């Protein structure tokens, strides 16, 4: 026993001295050198002590990002997000992305349904190790517990109801919107909608059903006129494009297949406003109405639908009162509404009596630190400069003199224009070259470099600026840009915490700069296909184009905007097939 004790101490002393003299000597070499003296026992004890004294270094936990929805906003966010930085989970009741601008083309067979959809799992194929997808529907958002409650339609848990819960660090709400019936009686029961791929497929089948039913020998002429009366309620882009597609389907294909009943077909658009396409330039709206009149499409403007039964549509106008018309199929495209889960969430956070979630300019939901909302389910609340005018004045008044020189204003002008974009828009609308023109126009000062204004004069100069605050439309273009912007913010979140790139903080208790620049929507233009290989376009720079050449521009833009080469080739091949063989009228 004494021998082993002596050998162990000798081995330990040898190992210690060897490490001091030769610090680069490997552990294996020391072990072999000491083994003959019984030092193996001593080394094993020493190694165990050293191992236990070293602190364990675990990799930092990735923040959990949960994305609700796979529409334009959610898909754009996922495509641009660096998923290696986060633990990403996607929850949606549909496992694909649909190119919704082409839904009217699906209703008449111009484009096949599967040509405009791309599986989400395939889109995220390169990120599949970092992204989890759950085909389920979120029915509750619990902001206090940072969790979302979901219900699966394809699988069940042990309780048999398919409910489960997912927690998050950051939540991106991109659930889109649902149809808005304005509580009109009979709409949900008797009208078709055009929000999803399934809606377009139902319309396509019902159109063929109407023609087949009207071809039966026991149907009277009056019944044929009723069955073949197609009514579109809503004169926006979706309703107008569907009417144009329906007219092309009739004159190019169905008249050859159903020659005996072609004279009974009628297409009607009911619009509550004075013109269709009222969000477009007036020249486009007038052109569309004149073209539809030539094509035999009836446009009833100034009518509001008050009731829809199984065979009659009752509408009301100021001049004619109530009018009822028989119909065979009605398509409702008169607006968008709020999903129940969003309404419930708004009640939780105190945003009652609103149509959509209110976010700030950085797309963060008000009163929720880690919840962002993008797409049709949210709207940006642009802060008004007059609400912060005193703070802005104090920030610019660096010498605390109670007045601002032109230099002091110019020093913070860039931050003001970034934080309050309406300032720049107002100056452009009034054809002002710089801030001097704005101040001079308000206070009537002369052309002096040392122009000085007090706070009352400063308020007067900016008093009309907030008139340029405009709401952003609920379009696919806006949703895609919001998704891209938010993904960029997430990608550089850590970097911008140390090196902020946003404007100066002019509200709240914080100081310094915002981490990011606020979201700015850039309008890239909009199209309205009008049938007969004609379209209208409103592009940046007040450029309006109408006619056959614009239709070919529409083809090129919509083909290039497809999310993959697969869908791009499928859509182009569908267009080519339609040119050569016509549309398919099979009821499948």
Describe the overall structure.
The structure is a single chain. Helix 4 packs parallel to helix 18 (476-491). This protein has a seven-stranded mixed sheet with strand order 7-6-5-2-1-8-20, with helices on one face. It has a five-stranded parallel sheet with strand order 10-17-11-12-13. The protein folds into three domains: 61-177 and 338-382 and 471-506, FAD/NAD(P)-binding domain (3-Layer(bba) Sandwich), CATH 3.50.50.100; 192-337 and 524-581, FAD/NAD(P)-binding domain (3-Layer(bba) Sandwich), CATH 3.50.50; 385-468, EF-hand (Recoverin, domain 1, Orthogonal Bundle), CATH 1.10.238.10. By secondary structure, the chain is α/β, with parallel strands linked by helices. The model is unreliable at 1-55 (pLDDT under 50). Belongs to the NADH dehydrogenase family. InterPro entries: EF-hand-dom_pair, EF_Hand_1_Ca_BS, EF_hand_dom, FAD/NAD-bd_sf, FAD/NAD-binding_dom, NDH-2, NDH2-like_C. This is NADH:ubiquinone reductase (non-electrogenic).
List the helices and strands and how they pair.
Layout lengths: L1 H20 L5 H9 L3 H15 L9 E6 L3 H9 L5 E7 L3 E3 L4 H5 L9 E3 H4 L7 E12 L4 E6 L10 E5 L2 E4 L4 E2 L7 H4 L1 E2 L3 H18 L6 H7 L1 E5 L3 H21 L8 E6 L10 H14 L2 E4 L2 E5 L3 E6 L3 E6 L2 E4 L3 E2 L2 H9 L8 E3 L11 E3 L4 E3 L8 H8 L6 E3 H14 L2 H8 L5 H9 L8 E3 H7 L14 H16 L1 H6 L27 E6 L2 E6 L3 E5 H13 L4 H17 L7
Parallel strand pairs: 1-2, 1-8, 2-5, 8-20, 10-17, 11-12, 11-17, 12-13, 19-21
Antiparallel strand pairs: 3-4, 5-6, 6-7, 9-18, 14-15, 15-16, 22-23, 24-25, 25-26
Helix pairs in contact: 1-2, 1-3, 4-18, 8-9, 16-17
